[in-house]
Amino acid sequence: MKNYILLFWISLIACTGFSQDAQRDRLKALRVAFITEKLALTAAEAEKFWPIYNRYDDKIFQLRNVDLLRLKREARNDFSTLSDEEANKMLDKLEDIEQQLFLERKALVVNLRKVIPAKKVILLKSVEDDFNRELLERLKERREKRLRGN
User: Fold this and answer.
1) Domain ranges (residues) in the chain
2) Cα 75 to Cα 90: distance, rounded to the nearest angstrom
3) pTM: predicted TM-score of the whole model, two decimal places
4) Pairwise CA distance, residues 129 & 125, whole Å
């Protein structure tokens, strides 16, 4: 039953037009419910887990959706006039962002090992992938339904 409720909420979010911040907040709420259920976090574990995970998620969001997106936009806009020196600087920035992403994930694991069992830390990556897969499925269904005219 919980899975059906979760899928309903994912579908609802995918089907309605919210502002990006509101949509991100709703997706975060869905992710919280999904991860909490799939990891079977106790109340005590969840209380310690979520502040760590939320800090990680905010940093990752900043790196991927602000820093990396800005860099990609720069490269796309200036590509025809980009010198080798500028291209090398962009590649250095890209490497720095990728390194920061790796270090954030590593820090997440280190910090989570202190508050939840190692098995749950290992399971987290799979659960995150499952959540993203479910979300993409709902978006795909929505797009197909819109294209069919229903």
Assistant:
1) 1-41+124-150, 42-115
2) 8
3) 0.77
4) 6
